[in-house]
């Protein structure tokens, strides 16, 4: 449903995309991850015909994004980073307006608006300006589905939402995918990609630097991780030395949180091996008199994958979630 080959975009001397390749099958969710300015939004704008690529080719639903742009637009829905709804109109009026803009007849636009209002739980009769942030994003998502497109682009759809509103959006996206909709999702919430995406493409400096299922990307970091929080920060180095004896890679320490983190490798499916390692480390800490406040044996997270692949990009993502301004390929947001 979505194919890109060697997709490039330059703005003068600046290169936003440096040859991206993508393949997304029917009814799948592809998560496009990357730090600020990595090229995610530029890729979406090209795939939705809002920008012309400098080089390369792409097709959506079988149509070329350059030579068959009008057919592409009839086959897609787009939910951008900011809700594109008229705050003076009700939710129903907004959806009917979008229906008419898509050349649906008046009766069909009313019927489709009623269907989407019920599906997305938007029964509020007041103007959209009175909606909560989560309701406004659900209305924006409903507007993107007004013509029931086979391909839906979600460009950071839950930025700024509280956890409950974010979960509501995730539920609606899952419903759409279960009905066969193909979704390309850009996000800086790693949990969002982990929950929704079948495959993840990590983009950095305009290139795809890693691709695979969330599980495959996590596995590349080398198995489970052992996390310890020591009670006495003065004994952090001692705890790290004990953990190093069982670690399969470099041990990380954080003096501020008194945390020790180390990769623990073992044969695939050998949960007993990893539990034995945990038991041995705890016994060694007890013998040394190092008290532990918390301990966990866990799988790597997408956050760790993201940070490993993109360096400091995770810090940029954290600032974005906190609402600080940053530079993107389109300028200052």
What does this molecule look like?
The protein is α/β, with parallel strands linked by helices and 333 residues long. The protein has twelve helices and 16 strands. It has helices at residues 40-47, 69-73, 91-101, 106-119, 133-144, 163-178, 190-196, 214-219, 236-244, 271-288, 302-310, 313-322; strands at 2-11, 14-24, 29-33, 55-60, 63-64, 76-79, 151-155, 182-187, 199-204, 207-212, 224-230, 252-254, 259-264, 292-298, 327-328, 331-332. The longest helix has 18 residues, at 271-288. 40% of the residues are buried. One of its GO terms (cellular component) is plasma membrane. Belongs to the ABC transporter superfamily. Drug exporter-1 (DrugE1) (TC 3.A.1.105) family. Residues 314-333 are annotated as: Disordered. This is ABC-2 type transport system ATP-binding protein.
> What's the overall geometry?
elongated
Strand content: 25-35%
| Structure summary, number of beta strands | 16
Roughly what is the average pLDDT, rounded to an integer?
84
**Which CATH architecture of the domain at 2-75 and 149-218?**
3-Layer(aba) Sandwich
Lateral arrangement of strands in the main beta sheet: 6-7-8-3-9-10
**CATH homologous superfamily assignment of the domain at 2-75 and 149-218:** P-loop containing nucleotide triphosphate hydrolases
**Total helical segments:** 12
**What percentage of residues falls in helices of 4 or more residues?**
25-40%
H and E order: EEEHEEHEHHHEHEHEEHEHEEHEHHEE
Which fold name is given in CATH as the topology of the domain at 2-75 and 149-218?
Answer: Rossmann fold
Report Rg: 23 Å
- Output the CATH class name of the domain at 2-75 and 149-218: Alpha Beta
Sketch the major β-sheet.
6 strands, mixed
**What structural class do the secondary elements suggest?**
alpha/beta
Distance between the termini: 31 Å
Unreliable residue stretches: 267-271, 313-333
């Amino acid at each position: 449903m979505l194919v890109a080959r060697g997709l490039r975009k330059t703005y003068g001397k600046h290169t936003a995309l440096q040859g991206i390749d993508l393949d997304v099958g029917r009814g799948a969710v592809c998560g496009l991850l990357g730090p600020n300015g990595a090229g995610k939004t530029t890729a979406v704008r090209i795939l939705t015909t809002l920008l012309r690529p400098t080089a390369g080719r792409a097709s959506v639903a079988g149509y070329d994004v350059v030579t068959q742009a009008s057919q592409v637009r009839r086959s897609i829905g787009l939910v951008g980073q900011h809700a594109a709804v008229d705050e003076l109109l009700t939710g129903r009026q907004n959806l009917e307006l979008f229906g008419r803009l898509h050349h649906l007849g008046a009766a069909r636009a009313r019927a489709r608006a009623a269907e989407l209002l019920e599906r997305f739980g938007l029964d509020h009769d007041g103007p959209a300006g009175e909606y909560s942030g989560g309701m406004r994003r659900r209305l924006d998502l409903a507007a993107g589905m007004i013509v029931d497109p086979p391909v839906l682009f979600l460009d950071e759809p839950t930025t700024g939402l509280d956890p409950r509103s974010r979960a509501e959006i995730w539920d609606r996206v899952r419903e759409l995918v279960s009905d066969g909709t193909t979704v390309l999702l850009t996000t800086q919430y790693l949990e969002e990609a982990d929950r929704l995406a079948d495959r993840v493409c990590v983009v950095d400096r305009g290139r795809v630097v890693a691709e695979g299922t969330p599980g495959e990307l996590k596995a590349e970091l080398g198995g489970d991780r052992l996390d310890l929080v020591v009670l006495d920060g003065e004994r952090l180095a001692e705890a790290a030395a004990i953990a190093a004896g069982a670690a399969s890679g470099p041990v990380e320490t954080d003096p501020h949180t008194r945390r020790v983190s180390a990769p623990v490798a073992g044969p695939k499916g050998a949960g007993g091996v990893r539990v034995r390692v945990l038991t041995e480390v705890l016994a060694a800490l007890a013998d040394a008199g190092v008290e532990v406040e918390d301990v966990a044996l866990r799988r790597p997270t997408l956050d760790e994958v993201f940070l490993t692949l993109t360096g400091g990009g995770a810090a940029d993502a954290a600032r974005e979630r906190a609402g600080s301004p940053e530079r993107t390929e389109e300028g200052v947001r």
